[in-house]
UniProtKB/TrEMBL annotation, chains A, B, C:
This is Rh family B glycoprotein. It comes from Buteo japonicus. It holds the Pfam family Ammonium_transp. GO terms for cellular component: plasma membrane. One of its GO terms (biological process) is ammonium homeostasis. GO terms for molecular function: ammonium channel activity. Its main location: membrane. Belongs to the ammonium transporter (TC 2.A.49) family. Rh subfamily. The keyword Glycoprotein applies. SUPFAM superfamilies: Ammonium transporter (SSF111352). It is a multi-pass membrane protein. The chain crosses the membrane at residues 12-31, 67-83, 90-115, 127-145, 152-171, 220-237, 249-272, 301-326, 346-369, 390-410.
Length: 417, 417, 417
């Protein structure tokens, strides 16, 4: 967090106070807890801003509350991921998280309001807000250390709105299936942050120096973050795919992916780094990449073998990206990337979306059994072929990239300058 | 932990051994696991030492076991909170926790024994002991660094007994509703510890210096502690309010409170601290204050907006308290407060109790629906008005303060000198 | 992790790549997710490689998925335990974990393949692989700092196979009950690692110096590790003993054991260490010893008092072992033990197995009620007396020791030299 003057300190304090007051007033006017007997936030398929759109009347599965806890632990690791810039960056990350959650509940509620005329809040809208907050935290990873807290708050303000629009278009209008957020969380978050970083580029100030040379303390965070990731990310990725009496494919595939991506680090690291010591941050990056890879495909892979191959490939991306891609990005495209979100979230997210598209095209009732109705209800009902669904999933990628990059440019240009 | 001599080392070792042997013998004579088919520890309403007194015959909800896990994680953060005094303080905190749990199971069991003639132990008594241990850990936060381990053990010995008496009076005799422990845990723990600290004041030794100037390492604990708090405290606060098929109000309100209290830090911190850097411990304090605020009111708030306002106010207390109140407390009242438990637990706990009282007075069947019977069974049955219940909740505050302060004085005077 | 040359770096990278490719190919050929309606991995009692062999047709209890999460958290702490050798050791531990999970799923699957002709993978096989990985991580604790990553991978390769053979003999052929792995995890892991360490002894290089004198940073890991242990190990120990509508004895006993073993540290530490400061690693060691003690006996103890006594005794072992046993082991038997696995896992594991045997011999239908059928189905059916079962449990100890020590010697001699 850069040093700031007395004026900017009061500006930050005032803006923060204003935002909290506005949020409180909007909550007071619009937001209520859902009635006791209602099925919750997502009572109508068309307007459901989150992944539950295919089974609106199904009651919350047991353990849904815990899923929220685990989702929040997902933040723990993201915060640990952001900590590589130093301990101060953790403080600001948690503040961003606190604001983003409130704001996301509100904005996603407003979307619902315009469609249905009321805002009901419950455990489901909290999970929904968690996904949004994860995307915002990824975005901040690209600009950390070069923006002040006021700009961070404005980035959050705009990012949440754009995330909600993108998610609504993809999940509700187009019927795309992306339960773990390969597209909506990882790809959107990464490219939104990268474009903001591009706009904020200051030629005389920034230098394309290596980022990973931090001291000893971030290693502590990296260890805790990696363990968190291993434990809680599989559940985060599969938060909305819980089903009774079925093997949790999304969870198992994510574990296999994490295991393979971690080993991929050990394959590349001794070759790329002459000093030959393995850093915890490298393992944490590989773990995050392996998780981003399984965001869309996790619940679609029918064999553990596929998860191992995909995870291994995902684990190769961060070391190669940090070594070969980041210098080019920085010197040619003037995009700085403090925490390497492009290597860790952007590229693995895109690859995950492509893998998910491929698997969608190959989806058959034979392979999926009863899952098909859960995953692709329109295909199961016969009103759509698997190829139609795959085309739809494929179209979601350029739409997300467009919205993230356009939105990031406009946010950087008009809000953060 | 102050250095201690050979004599005191053997004294500590001997006392610890003695306490463990006594505990083991008492366990051997009195404590048994509950029979397979029994409804557990709280089979009779009148004698139930913990919050389950309103629904004794209801079986344990699924996930109750996990609740215990999460309660223990609550300790994780309290231990992290105590760590601001240095790494050695964590070691002693965990020892206190280990002893307090055993002792609390025993003392709460004895209460049951005198009332019912047997001690049965199960998952419920473990949760009950967890709440007690949390209060003790808060108390130790006030005296950390100025008492030796032997005194810590004696403080635990007496604190557990007083906590059990206070809880029995409030929850069982008076029928007060305090599921998250605004009064029984936070207020009791803080003022008990503060009075012990007052008695142990040594004019020539203690100086009213600022406490928050610790090195770099506690920041690591503060980060881990804050993330733990965000994840597990909402469940701790609502451990005994779990209901099937209902939105978990206590959990959601606590989340909103945490989010608002965290932002409140960002509002005040740049104004109060000229150096302008945000410390993680400040965020951790705000988070704890936001949680203490929701202890009683969490399950009673019917709108998220109320939780945001209450959390925001709670988040303002610690920074203001550390800046303006603590020097006064120290110089005028001779009360030192190592970890600032008065700002973080005491005042927010009192405010939370007042808010809970207000909400109780406003409770109507319209607003609460089916929850009313769960929250205030006597009001729902019509044998009591909401005002009666509110008066009862209000009376609980001075009783708790009296017991905590009187008990703390006597403990400090007669046991720890 | 010792420095390694360019040649050995490429050797490591190549071996790692090769192992991952072989694993992927074997997964591709043999491993599939279980069919939707199948009862999972353990459909036949005789071939079930893990503890579920006594109730194959029972569906997964709710929360089983979470059990896996908690099992993985068990790794968190083991990794923290290994971290005492320095931050680099955490990185290699996580890599070993990533490889061991894949390899364990495969090897345990192969066992099933030879018996049943197919490999089905699901949540149960993941839990099974977690137990195996825990044993491997314990083994690596004995040799950490004196072997290179290539040797670590080979140790994992062989250790997983031997663990699977030992577990198959004990649980499936002999019908031994060891739900928390006193024998299969702690004893096997410790003695396997110690024998490898013995074989790798290099007289001119190794010196029997004290190990616990590490810097400040491991204390952070020890704090986090101990809190993890307290929260998640009780569930790990009782992962396969979950039953509906019954007090979770295994969980409660483990908690009581942890509490007593932690206090035991405070009894011994002031006497043994003149400097008189309590180190977090000592508390972590005591916690692990208390957990290892309850591995087999946790679900068999009918009174909390027994758990307190057993835990207290277990907590005395690590401080005494580090002070008196380790120098002898090192100077006489030429066995170095980097992380003290003999004190923390080996001896408490053996004691736990003996306690479990004693409790088995005393098992009666009166004391256990409906649990007897769950714990010892053959005894409950009357086809076996409790004494038979106890003899069987007793024989498991020398078999495990033999397999671990013979296997460790051969692995050290032929694979790691």
């Amino acid at each position: 967090m850069p040093e700031y003057t007395t004026a900017s300190r009061f500006q930050l304090s005032g803006l923060c106070f204003l935002l909290q007051i506005i949020t409180i007033i909007l909550f007071a006017v619009f937001v209520r807890y859902g009635p006791e007997s209602s099925p919750g936030f997502c009572s109508q398929v068309a307007a459901c801003p989150r992944h539950l759109q295919t089974h609106p009347s199904v009651p919350l599965p047991p353990g849904f509350r815990d899923v929220h806890l685990q989702a929040l632990l997902g933040f723990g690791l993201l915060v640990a991921f952001l900590s590589r810039y130093g301990p101060g960056s953790v403080a600001i990350s948690i503040l961003i998280m606190a604001f983003a959650i409130q704001w996301a509940v509100l904005i996603q509620g407003f979307l619902h309001f315009f469609l249905n005329g009321k805002i009901y809040v419950g455990a489901q809208s909290m999970v929904s807000a968690d996904f949004c907050t994860a995307a915002i935290l990824i975005s901040t990873g690209a600009v950390l250390g070069r923006v002040n807290p006021v700009q961070m708050l404005l980035l959050t303000l705009m990012g949440v709105i754009l995330f909600t629009v993108n998610e609504y278009i993809l999940l509700s209008l187009m019927g795309v299936r992306d339960s773990g957020g390969s597209l909506t969380v990882h790809t959107f978050g990464a490219y939104f942050g990268l474009m903001v970083s591009r706009i904020l580029h200051q030629p005389h100030m920034d230098k394309c120096k290596k980022q990973q040379d931090t001291g000893n303390q971030p290693d502590v965070f990296a260890v805790v973050g990696t363990i968190y990731l291993w434990i809680f990310w599989p559940s985060f990725t599969s938060a909305t795919t819980v089903r009774e009496n079925a093997e949790p494919w999304a969870v198992l595939n994510t574990y296999f992916s994490l295991a393979a991506s971690t080993l991929a680090t050990l394959v590349l690291s001794p070759i790329l780094h002459e000093e030959g010591t393995l850093r915890m941050v490298q393992i944490q990056d590989a773990t995050l990449a392996g998780a981003a890879m399984m965001g869309m495909a996790g619940e679609m892979l029918v064999t553990p073998f596929g998860a191992l191959v995909a995870g291994f490939l995902a684990g190769l991306i961060p070391p190669l990206g940090f070594r070969f891609l980041m210098p080019v990005l920085c010197s040619r495209l003037k995009i700085q990337d403090t925490c390497g979100v492009h290597n860790v979230h952007g590229l693995p997210g895109i690859l995950g979306a492509l893998l998910g598209t491929l698997l969608t095209a190959l989806a058959t009732a034979d392979a999926y059994g009863g899952r098909l109705e859960f995953l692709f209800p329109l295909v199961a009902q016969g009103s759509w072929t698997a190829t139609d669904q795959a085309l739809c999933q494929l179209c979601a990628l350029p739409i997300t990239l467009l919205l993230a990059m356009l939105g990031g440019s406009l946010t950087g240009e008009f809000c953060l300058r």
